[in-house]
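Table 4 source record.
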Amino acid sequence: MQYYETWNFKIGTTIIVLSCMFASIGYCGFDADAPFLSFGTAFLMALVGGAIGGGLICPNPLPAGIVGGLIAGPTGLIAVHFYTLDRAEIYTLEIGLVMCVASLPGLSVGKLIQYVMQKQGH
């Protein structure tokens, strides 16, 4: 099986990373333009960005991508929150790495749903 990166994949990845990263930076207080977003606002940003990005990353079947994104976005936000507790300075690379590791459950669930739905013929 050969993997080809499509425009949907690139755009979906950009949407999920940027929405979750901006939400986590704003929520944790590291962004001067959006100081201290409320948890509800940041969670909603991560949830919507994750669902849209997941749907673009995995469009076949669409429910697998959306559910995977719905899990990956908020888990990335929560992981960055716990990682940045008691930190005065943080680098963007650190946030990206934490979010990548925290998004693995969403990726796993999305792939599992995709596998099950393809086995059933959807």
